[in-house]
Write a structure and sequence with these properties.
The structure is a homodimer of 259-residue chains. Chain A has twelve helices and two strands, in the order ααββαααααααααα. Chain A is mainly α. Chain A has two domains: 8-92, no CATH class; 98-259, Farnesyl Diphosphate Synthase. A two-stranded antiparallel ribbon of chain A has the order 1-2. The longest helix of chain A has 28 residues, at 165-192. The radius of gyration of chain A is 18 Å and the shape is globular. The two termini of chain A are 29 Å apart. The interface between A and B is large, with 58 and 58 residues.
Chain lengths: 259, 259
Amino acid sequence: MRRVLPAPDIAPQRLHQALRYAVLEGGKRVALAGAAVELIHAYSLVHDDLPCMDDDVLRRGKPTCHVEYDEPTALLVGDALHSLAFQVLGDYRLAEDAKTQLEMVKLLAAAAGSRGMAGGQAIDLESVGKALTVTELEFMHIHKTGAIIRASALLGARCGSGLGPRELGQLDLFAKLIGLAFQVVDDVLDAEGSTATLGKTAGKDAKDHKPTYVSAIGVARARELAQELRQNALDALAGFGERALRLRQIADFIVLRKF
Amino acid sequence: MRRVLPAPDIAPQRLHQALRYAVLEGGKRVALAGAAVELIHAYSLVHDDLPCMDDDVLRRGKPTCHVEYDEPTALLVGDALHSLAFQVLGDYRLAEDAKTQLEMVKLLAAAAGSRGMAGGQAIDLESVGKALTVTELEFMHIHKTGAIIRASALLGARCGSGLGPRELGQLDLFAKLIGLAFQVVDDVLDAEGSTATLGKTAGKDAKDHKPTYVSAIGVARARELAQELRQNALDALAGFGERALRLRQIADFIVLRKF
């Protein structure tokens, strides 16, 4: 990631320092396709934390970007990281051929856009103060966090030797289920966790009147649901054998973290 | 552009309506490589108009996106347009081969990022209230607007049959000069024009204590400079003959608009 980010002494220096602030240290780094996905993720966190969105002051145990720098700089940091993600996909050789790599551009852009992550954020905004059903919560999270998690898995698959359509389908199903599991666990941790273990402000969802799995079905059922999703996700990988060892470890990491 | 934008009845509907609001109707459409560049341009305008940036209420004769919708929606509109630009580059066949098209991804991403447009915005933020020299103004504008104008020209060149390195160099020089001319004209219009002819709030630069060519060298010299830049830009195209007719017309359009 340090190789991908502009050096902090290149003009405009303050912006480049702020880019590094927002990206380096911390983060879960589960992204299989690596830096490009992580840059999209980092941009979304910086923008989500802005006063006009979640208005959060703490992220990964540090002051959020707009608190450490200022609001316009944080806006530009998000925008610059967003562009940098596609610069990485255009600049480094990641796939066997340019055609496959161009598909990766399309895949990540679609996952980040209005029918993926940014769309999920819009649905999130509209759902504040509403009581959503589990089905409606799923629809929101499949966009908001699910699209990028699925893109990570599918980008990873395109970096290596080709998977067949059936295997790609199973991988996509795994990513979809584990993305939902991630969100269920996040909601439980937000309701029960402390700010120190989360690295971000705990209890914020309830305070902001955001619908969560905990508000929809309670903590006990949410814990069960996370385990069910994990099991279904692992089942989706049944045909992969040893090749899916890392993916299984990620599934466990997501569901069992601080639980 | 209507083909590229998601239909307004696709979920999330309000976001997709806001995307169309920000992109359709108006705009200068000088972008040679077309929709992708225009989407980057449109995203930058939506973000620039936000309260934490230029805090502007009028754009292209209409209320700005955050005024018509709301601030978080405008933030997401910019983000979604930004992703959509790269989705277009990944999705449509624009160049002779995938390798060239992947270069276009890299070119546009670099032009939009921290060493291009977003970087120029950061320099702009830091220059508020300062008296810049013409050289410093140039440095700012070469990033802020120049990078995308140059990328437009170079993307256009990659859509057709290949230009040699010398021709690409001349084209790039043309785009650089015409980009500066555009900014000089913009500063004169902002100082002298009315809100009605501009389609955006006139006199805003002086009010916001932004350094401009008018504040640096005065209106009369700024008008001369625009003409000199136009002439130098046209000279850069001397070797192109009839092929550069449209580019010459664009140069005239930029410098002679409402002048």
